[in-house]
Each structure stands twice: as structure tokens, then as C-alpha cells.
Amino acid sequence: MSTFSYSESTPAAMSLITIDNFINNAYVKPQNGIYFDTFEPSRGRPYAKIPDSAATDVELAYKAAASAFPAWSKTSAAERSNIMNKIANLLESRLDEFAEAESRDQGKPVELARTVDIPRAIHNFRFYASKIIHATEEAGELPGVGLSYTQRMPVGVAGLISPWNLPLYLLTWKIAPCIASGNTAVCKPSEFTSMTAFLLCSVFIDAGLPTGVVNMVFGTGMGAGQAIVDHPRIPLISFTGGTVTGAKIIANSAKHFKKLSLELGGKNANIVFADSNLEAALNTSVRSSFANQGEICLCGSRIFVERPVYQQFLDGLVARAKNLKVGDPRSKDTNLGALVSREHWEKVTGYIQLSLEEGGKIECGGQKPSSLQDEFKDGYFLEPTIISGLTPQCRVMREEIFGPVVTIYPFDTEEEVIQLANDSVYGLSCSVWTENIRRARRVAGAIQAGTVWVNTWMARDLRMPFGGMKQSGLGREGGDHSLNFYSEIKTICLAD
Ligand code: NAD
């Protein structure tokens, strides 16, 4: 069992951790022998070496998954459920270690990983361990003919590709329903955050997951990721990541008619009506704007506030944002850690610069905190930033920034704000704040987004469908929706 401890980051232990692929329940070096550095965002320095896997590694992983498939697909739901519960229990017993690893790799506060990311990863396995033993098929009498019923078959070897913002949370959200449904998998975590996926492999071994059921290939999108999408015998791709990548995956997989689930980007509206509980709206909006450094696809990055309470809301949000502590991810009172990479920090700060060129006013933030010294002076930190004065046509109000940057804009009528919220190529989520139940139902019904929260944010019921409209994705995950995606459903008609 490999264990992980933050103390490895002390100067005395500066040798880089090396990650290897996980194929047939064994750690395997990349065929080309090439590794690249991955960086610790809070310190801005390399701390681990990641295999730069290519098509040959994907082929090895595919072969392992394909030879595991016949036996795994024939196991009973109860057997699969049992192993998944063991995975969940082992993960839970290593909660602190996984939380520290996630924080060090991604930049987020340890406390966030300990209370959100890793518990959700545990829950993903438990949820589908339970779901699969309670799953039923459809059946109906066909008068004069006989009985129609459905039967599910696993699809085969699944390609699971995940992003860097919620690394273990989102990867396990794919692995759990995939293996619960009897498929085997070739996974490709983000090249920026491979560590907890690597640690998860040791959990699989300890839980007794049969050889080859889940294989992990580390590397870049253009290398290992594209090789999975191009592989002619991987019939299903579940992808979470950017919209531009999603479009490439649609194009590259089209010739093989792959089953696709795409969870993509967003530019979510957070709508605050004057009749809302302003205190509650403010307290949640500071989280929906800046949690995980704003690197959550569901963050409400476009805030629209009804004019009579606009100034009061802006003042309240600025005061709360200024109170947030940015810095050492290990410290329990840290609210924002570091952004995931230097490239991403440059992208996000580029948008702050652009907002000035577009006529915006930075109400707070916009800078790397000057208080960060010593070990954190090279980290990719950024203050929570609120920008006013932009028009809805500005790029900063239209493009996904995916950092601790929100825009705020006043509106006058319900019709106007519905039009503003829907005026986007994205349609992932939206929050609505009002105490008027009829208005809540009207607005929620009119919003073009896969999830609408009323007087809350990021509350997630795993039984419910989750996904995006428009360029925010294709398909729905969660509950039966994932089981349907990871299955081929056959109708059998049996004559009397
Ligand atoms: P990304 O698209 O750059 O990368 C995601 C994954 O795809 C990585 O593992 C990457 O290596 C791989 N990849 C890149 N190019 C590929 C290709 N051509 N073929 C196959 N795989 C390829 O996204 P990111 O920067 O890691 O993540 C941020 C994005 O993810 C944001 O847009 C965010 O909104 C989105 N996201 C969406 C959801 C959701 O549920 N809708 C959740 C989290 C993140």
C-alpha cells in the first residue's frame, strides 16, 4: 500500500515522487520510458513525475480490461457491490492521506478535500454499490402477444477521462457506475492531477478488485487521452472537461459511433431578486463564487442582482470576499488555496486584465496576495475578484474563466434576467434567490440549464440527473441515468 504524507514536501525530502501506470493490478512504466514533471501549485515547483503514456500504453491497458471483461461482466450485482463497498471503506480509512494528496496536487485547501472531495468519492462507490443491487428491469404485458421485458448488458471496455478541478471526486463518479454495471475500464486522469488516482490503485488491490477491471493510464490529453478516444474497440467514452476538448472528442469518436457522455464547461448565472433572504444569498454566493478557487464547473460566475438591492448586495459580497483567507492549503482557516497551474493562473489573470480593457471596475481582488512569502511565494495564488461595470456582450461576461473571478450586473425585471441568464452558449447550472415561490417556479422553469438551485447552491442528490444543456454537455449522469449509459439495454418480447 503506498501512503502519502505532506511531510514529503519538506526540503529534506525533495526527491520527486514517481507515478506509474496501473495495468492488470500492477504498476507499469510507460513503454517509451518518458515522464514529465507535475507541479505543486501552492509552491510552484515540481514534486512528482508522471508517465507520458502513448497509444502503446493504452493498448496494454485495453488488453488488460478486455481480458478481465468476460469474468467481471458475469459476476453478480451483489459481488460487485461487495467489492465496491470495500473500496469505499478503505478509502474512508485513508481519508486524511487522500485529502492531503489532493490538496498538494491540485492546490485546494486540505480541509475542502477532507470534507468535500474525498467524502464524495467514497459516497460515489457506496451509492452505486447500493444502487446496483436495487436496480430493476422494465416489463409489460403486450395484450394478445406475450411479455416484453428489458435486459441490460454491460457495454465492454469503457474509456473514462477526467479533469483537474475535482480530481478523485469526478473520476470515481465515472468508475463507480461503470464497474457496478459490469464494464471494465481504461481511465485517464488529468495530467495536472494524477496523484489521488494513483493512490486509488492501491485501494483497488487491497479491496480485491479483480485484475484488469480498472486500469489507469497517466499522461496528456493529446497522448493517452486521444489514444483512448481513437481506440477502435473502446465503445464508450465518459468525459468531463472543457467544451473545446468535448468537441474534439465528438469528432474523433464519430467514426467508431462511440457512446458518449460529455460533461463540459459553464458560465453559470446566480440571480438575486430583491425579495430574497439577502443574508442567505450573500453567504452562499461567496461560496458559489470562490469555493475551490472558483474552479468548479458549477460556480456562479455571472451574478445578476435586482437593482433595488444591487449596491447592498455588492457591498456585502465585497466585504465577505475580503474576509476570505488565501494561502497555505494546509491551514484549517484557509478559504482559497492556489490555482492548479501557472498556465491556468496566467489565463485567469489575463481575463482580469481584459476586464479593464472592456471597461470593467475591479471591486476587490485582482492580484496575487502580497502577504505570501517564503515557501508560498512562487505559488499560483489569486485574490477573490469581483468585477462590475461590464456589459453582457463583454468576453469576460461570456467566456468561462474557471477561477476566483465573478462579474456582477444589475437587472430590472424578471423577463430581462431570464434573457440575460439564457444568453450563453452554455447551460450547466443556475442559482435563483427569491422568497416568492411562484417566481421561483417560473424562473427555474424558464432557465436553460441542466440544474437550477433555488435558495441554495451545489446541493447534489446523486439519484437525480446531472448534466448540461447546449455546449455544457451531452447526456445525463446520476442515478439510473448513469446505469443506462454504462449498459446496452435490450428489449425481449416473449410470445405466449
Ligand atoms: P480539459 O478539457 O483540458 O481536460 C480534461 C481531460 O481531457 C484531461 O484528462 C485531459 O488530459 C483530457 N484531454 C485533453 N485533450 C484531449 C483529447 N483531445 N482527447 C482526449 N482527452 C483529452 O479540461 P480541464 O482543463 O482539465 O478541466 C476544466 C474544464 O472542465 C472546465 O471547462 C470545466 O467547466 C469543465 N468541467 C466540467 C464539469 C461538468 O460536470 N460539466 C465538471 C468539472 C469540470
UniProtKB/TrEMBL annotation:
Active site: which residues? Answer: E263
GO terms assigned for molecular function:
aldehyde dehydrogenase [NAD(P)+] activity
The Aldehyde dehydrogenase domain covers which part of the protein? 28-492
Tell me the InterPro entries matching this sequence: Ald_DH/histidinol_DH, Ald_DH_C, Ald_DH_CS_CYS, Ald_DH_CS_GLU, Ald_DH_N, Aldehyde_DH_dom
Keyword tags: NAD, Oxidoreductase
Q: Which domain of life is it from?
A: Eukaryota
A Pfam family for this UniProt protein?
A: Aldedh
- Which positions carry the signal peptide feature in this UniProt record? none
Keyword NAD present in the record's keywords: the answer is: yes
Q: Where are the transmembrane segments?
A: none
Q: Which PANTHER family match?
A: 2-AMINOMUCONIC SEMIALDEHYDE DEHYDROGENASE
Q: Which family does it belong to?
A: Belongs to the aldehyde dehydrogenase family.
Would you tell me the protein name for this molecule? Aldehyde dehydrogenase 8 member A1
Source taxonomy: Eukaryota, Fungi, Fungi incertae sedis, Mucoromycota, Mortierellomycotina
